[in-house]
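Request:
Um, any thoughts?
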Amino acid sequence: MAAKIKKGDTVVVLTGRDKGKSGEVVQVLTSDNKALVRGINMVRRHQKQTQAQEAGIVAKEAPIHMSNIALADPKDGKATRVGFKVQDDGTKVRVAKRSGDLIDG
């Protein structure tokens, strides 16, 4: 099945602590059906000192389940479902169900 949410997309959080916030998808974890979103689901982790990093408490993004995020509509930025459409030249593109706008292309 084609991916409805991809790296680089802007998404809106539907449930949880960060409900209503939006951010850019940094990484998609297809095996776990989760995504890392910049600035969303921040957790604080204790970090050991390495050559590259100092020791201390570091804030970083934790993966969020795909069912808890929705793609942001390109027109108004609100959450929308994703559909697919085959264009005349045979390419398959994602379409926002809310406004009918093309998401990629």
